[in-house]
Design goal:
The protein is α+β, with helices and mostly antiparallel strands and 228 residues long. It has a single domain (14-225), classed as 3-Layer(aba) Sandwich (ECO RV Endonuclease, Chain A), CATH 3.40.600. It is 29% helix and 19% strand. The chain has six helices and nine strands; from the N terminus they run αααββαβββαββββα. The strands form three sheets. Strands 1, 3, 4 and 5 form a four-stranded mixed beta sheet that branches. It is globular.
Length: 228
């Protein structure tokens, strides 16, 4: 559920979305927040998803927490990309939750990873570690579709992870696996557990997991598309 009371109507076309995003380029988070009369937190330590949700609001994303792309009618996902002022990607990019409760075989075209990554609006946001959130600067947003080669690698990473889940080998999943797409724990604390099955078919509790794009991959995407 959104933590913002302000509502922006969703864009009706790709061009409208692009225009909205382009108007943000060069502005700080504080400037955009002032236009929308939204208070900016001092830091993001306890507001991990705030920045992404704020940009979603400002651009009129309407999917909420659904497994569909953020702009449902346009079939476009929004991803913010934290960078430093040298253009270096600072962290991995969350894609979606890995459903550990449903161990049935899922096809790639039906997966949330496929749906969310087939067309993405990237919004790079530059910030030095000593800067406040309001001073974070929005770089040039860009629409992106993965090349066939890149999408094939992401698909293979996804299939390998899903095979391990279906075989009950969740405990063997780790962030070292996957060339572009990795699986990492996604939980506010170690007590937030979810249920799945082990290799013997017995129900167990484990940390929730999520799919993330590696910084090395998003750095490649950024270098191929970012206008400085």
């Amino acid at each position: 559920m959104s933590q913002f009371s302000t509502k922006i109507s969703p864009p009706k076309t790709n061009d409208e979305l692009s225009r909205r995003a382009e108007r943000m380029a060069g502005k700080t988070i504080g400037q955009v927040a002032e236009e929308l009369a939204i208070e900016v937190p001092e830091n993001l330590r306890r507001k991990k998803g705030w920045q992404g949700q704020f940009i979603e609001l400002a651009l009129g994303a309407n999917a909420g927490n659904l497994s569909q792309p953020d702009f449902i009618d346009l079939n476009i996902e929004l991803k913010t990309l934290p960078i430093d002022y040298a253009g270096k990607v600072l962290e991995s990019t969350y894609v979606c939750v890995l459903n550990l409760a449903d161990t049935t075989i899922q096809t790639w075209p039906d997966s949330p990873v496929f749906r969310k990554l087939q067309h993405v609006l990237w919004v790079p946001i530059a910030r030095d570690k000593n800067q406040s959130v309001v001073e974070s600067k929005i770089a040039t947003p860009f629409l992106w579709r993965p090349s066939r080669t890149d999408f094939d690698i992401i698909r293979q990473d996804w299939e390998n992870a899903m095979e391990m889940v279906s075989l009950g080998r969740v405990d063997q999943l780790n962030a070292r696996q996957g060339e572009y797409l990795q699986v990492r724990p996604k939980a506010a604390n170690s007590r937030a557990l979810t249920r799945t099955y082990n290799s013997e078919g017995k129900q167990i509790e484990t940390l929730p997991r999520g799919f993330y794009l590696r910084p090395s991959f998003t750095q490649k995407v950024l270098l191929e598309n970012l206008q400085v």
